[in-house]
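Dear Dr. H.,

I hope your travels went smoothly. While you were away I took the liberty of generating a structure for the chain from your last submission, since the lab meeting agenda had it listed for discussion. I wanted you to have the full record in hand beforehand rather than looking at slides cold. The sequence, exactly as received, is reproduced here:
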Amino acid sequence: MASRTPDPSATDAARLLRPGRWSLRTRLLVVLVSLLALVCLAVGLVTSVTLQHVLLGRLDAQLTSAGGRSSNAGGGDGDGSPPAGGGEPPYDHTGAGFLRAPGQAAGTLGARIAAGRVAAAILANDGELQTVPTAEAAALRTLPVDNRPHTREVRHRGDYRLLATQSPDGDVLITGLPLADLHATLYRLAAVEAAVAGLALIVAGVAGDAIVRRTLRPLRRVAATASQVSTLPLERGEVALAERVAAADTDQGTEVGQVGYALNRLLDHVSAALRARQASESRVRRFVADASHELRTPLAAIRGYAEVTRRTREAAPPDLAHAMARVESEAARMTALVEDLLLLARLDSGRPLEAAPVDLTRLVLDSVSDASAAGRDHQWRLNLPDEPVTVDGDGSRLHQVVANLLANARTHTPGGTTVTTTITIEEGAVVLEVSDNGPGIAATALPTVFERFARADSSRSRTTGSTGLGLAIVHAIVTAHHGSVDVVSQPGRTVFRVRLPAESGPQPEASRRSC
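The corresponding predicted structure, in token form, is as follows:
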């Protein structure tokens, strides 16, 4: 099943939904804008509530005046008859003729409640009374008669501020002023506040982003220094750790300066530790190289004297012959170990290798031929391109790489195992694979398989001795050729994969030959 490449936009969206993964700049900006939004909201609420209180107080004052005029003009019996004092009353059939009293504003609502019946009307702009249907005025029946303003909704006509008074004839006179203008004023204020707050948030966001970026610039420089150090190969060899945070970013009076100062001190300690480690490694390499070089002569002498005892005319006693044969065998094994240690010491010291075109195909053919002669109980297979494959490098060392991989497969797998050697071309690199269908390498041994004197005896059968340096030499030689080597293993399949830079020039394509 083909793997799917993550969508960067989806990844960014998921990150935005998780505040814990936000950058410091994003967090500061969100906090700044959020605080400003809360301040704008609080100011808007306080302003709106205060304005509403002021406007409502002013409307209540107007309502009280209108209610007084209604009381003075509404003393009749509600059916159009004149009041007891005589005069020319402004009554009509609506029952709310008191609205015609001088000074009443257009839009004023008036109602008379007599004998449980409600008669209501609204004073139009032209001075005429518009009758309010009884069904719409039903909410007025429950209005308390306490000479205090109350808010009620008149169906289909909006909210009104209402004042109920008791007339001398016992009827209840209700005077009301609409709240539409007050609400419209508050809505306009809310719209203006929202627009101003939105504009302020946008300006604050843009300006805040610029300020936060500028403020965090020293921190980014500190992070850049740490990133540069993280890319250095610190695991081995001589390391020149010259990267440091600039003096301008190490002012301990600021938080960023404290981080920069601490990072510089850490780098100083790391640099000192690396120098001490390099000095120790250099001493060890010199010792190993010198010891290996000095041991070659006595080992050669031991092997020579052992061979002399076999060339005498007189037959040696069986015990002596066996002892001398063992001496010669162990001397040869010791010589191989010393040669491996000397090679590793030279590679560790950075001694340059030869660089010449190497026919890797011919080299693999020769190595597999030698391996098949030494391991006749194994099955040896080749999978090579039809055309020769060449790489730049040291031919003798590359031959040692292939020979060690084949010897490793032969030594650590039982008889009858099939060992396949393959060469392929991948993206400008030559890939050499040595695979077998043996029992595999234990998972616990895989991380250390290329270390010196590493053993994996518990997972692979052994028929002969091993110094534990073969794969370490493979890794050192491949690394010296600017290549890489890795291994994957499971029961029934183990693959060592060597990747080397290809020689400049065209390389063969996919056509192959197998044997």
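Two observations you may find useful: DSSP finds eight helices and 14 strands in the chain. The first helix runs from residue 8 to 16.

With kind regards,
E. W.
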